[in-house]
Amino acid sequence: MGQIRSPHPDRVSRIRSLLSDQELDAVLIQNPANIFYLVGFSGSDGALLISGAKTVLLVDGRYITQAGAETPSSEIVEYRDKTKGITRFIAENGFRRIGFESSVMSFQQHHDLASQTSGTDWIPIARGIEELRSIKDAEELSCIRKAIALSTRAFQIVMAEARPGMCEREIAIELDYRMRREGAENVSFSTIVASGENSALPHAKPGSRRLAPGDLVVIDFGSVYRGYCSDETCTVAVGPLSPVNKEIYQIVKDAHDIALEAIKDGAFCRDIDKLVRDFIDNKGYGPYFSHATGHGVGLEVHEFPRLNRLSEAVLKSGMVITVEPGVYIPGQGGVRIEDMVLVREHGCEKLTELPKELKFI
Ligand code: ZN
Ligand code: ZN
C-alpha cells in the first residue's frame, strides 16, 4: 500500500503532526467535508481514522466501491454498525488516546464510544481541521472560481428575463435550474428570493409573492463545483423605490465597500465586523443589521472563520470569506449585499463578479 500516494499527502501529514503535538494515537474524523478534504472520499457518511502509520476509511456497504475508487491511498474497512466498526478497529490497534471533532460527534455517539472503549481516552480537538481548510490552495481556488462563474452566468440569464409580476419561487427555480445547466453539481444552499416586505427576513423562503413596483428583492444563491461552494447576494429593485429603500441600499453598499477596504492578512475578524456594524449604527440602522458580517466558504458554505462580534479568528492570506452586511426593516424591506473575497497579504481580491450598484428590473 505504501507506494499509492494520497491525492493530498501534505494534508494527512498535517494531521499526523497534530497527533504528535497532542500525544494522540489516532484521530477520528466524521465530518464529510473534512474526510473529503483529507482523502478525497465524497460520500455523505463514513469515519476516517488517521494514526501515525495508517489512514483507514470505515464505510458501510453502500460506499465500498466508491471509497475504493476515490481513496486509493486509504485502507477501506466495511462496517455494519458505525460505532461497533470504530471500536473494533480501536481495540485491534490498541489505541489509548483518540482525538475527535468535538463539534461533530453527537452526545449519544460519544457515550456509546466511551462505554465500549473503556481503556481509551477521547480527546476533543476543536477546529484543527477546519483551520487547515480555511487556507485554500490553487486547486481549491480554481474550483471556487468555477462555482462563482457558473452562478454568475445563471444569474445573468435569469435576471435578463425577470419582470414585475413574476413570483419569488419562479425566479428561485429558474436560478437553480440554470446553475445546474451551467455545470453546477448542486446548489450550495436553498436559494433565497425575497421581495417587498419578505426581503426584511434575512433567511426568507421563496414563496408566491409577485414582484411589484417599489420592491427590493434580495437574491442569495450559490452553486457547488467539485465540492466547493459559492455564495453571493444581489439585491435588485423594482422601480421606483421609496427614499428609505434607496437610502438603506446605499448604506449597505458603503458598509460593504468599507469592509473590502479593510480586509487583509492579519486583520481580526471581529474588527472587520465592528467596522461594518459601527458604520451602519452611525447611520441610525444598527438594530436592523441582525447577523454576522461574513464567514469562510469552501467545502462547506459556512465554515471557519466567522466574521462576528465574538470571533477570535485572524484573517490569513489564502482564506476565502464573504462580506455580507444587511439592513432589514420589518414590514417594509431589506437589503443584503454579499461578495466572496480572497484574503491577500496587503488587501483582498474580490472573487464574485456581479456588480453591486443598484440595478432595476
Ligand atoms: Zn449568501
Ligand atoms: Zn453567506
Sequence-ordered SSE layout with sheet pairings:
Elements (H helix, E strand, L loop, with lengths): L8 H13 L4 E4 L2 H8 L7 E5 L3 E5 L4 H7 L4 E4 L3 H12 L3 E5 L5 H10 L4 E5 L2 H7 L3 H24 L6 H14 L4 E2 L4 E4 L20 E6 L1 E3 L2 E2 L2 E6 L5 H20 L6 H14 L11 E3 L6 E5 L12 E4 L2 E4 L3 E4 L2 E5 L4 E3 L11
Parallel strand pairs: 1-5, 3-4, 5-6
Antiparallel strand pairs: 1-2, 2-3, 7-10, 8-9, 9-12, 10-11, 13-14, 15-18, 16-17, 18-19
The protein binds zinc ion (2 copies).
Q: What's the CATH first level of the largest domain? A: Alpha Beta
**Tally of alpha and pi helices:** 10
The structure class reads alpha+beta
Please state the second-level CATH architecture of the largest domain: Alpha-Beta Complex
Name given to the CATH homologous superfamily of the largest domain: Creatinase/methionine aminopeptidase superfamily
Gyration radius (Cα, Å) is: 23 Å
At a glance:
With 361 residues, the protein is α+β, with helices and mostly antiparallel strands. The chain contains ten helices and 19 strands.
How does this model look, in words?
The protein is elongated, with a radius of gyration of 23 Å. It folds into two domains: 9-133, Creatine Amidinohydrolase, Chain A, domain 1 (3-Layer(aba) Sandwich); 138-360, Alpha-Beta Complex (Creatine Amidinohydrolase). With 361 residues, the chain is α+β, with helices and mostly antiparallel strands. The chain contains ten helices and 19 strands. The protein has helices spanning 9-21, 32-39, 64-70, 82-93, 107-116, 128-134, 138-161, 168-181, 243-262, 269-282; strands spanning 26-29, 47-51, 55-59, 75-78, 97-101, 121-125, 186-187, 192-195, 216-221, 223-225, 228-229, 232-237, 294-296, 303-307, 320-323, 326-329, 333-336, 339-343, 348-350. α9 (243-262) packs antiparallel against α10 (269-282). The strands form six sheets. The chain has a six-stranded mixed sheet, sandwiched between helices. The structure holds zinc ion (ZN) (2 copies).
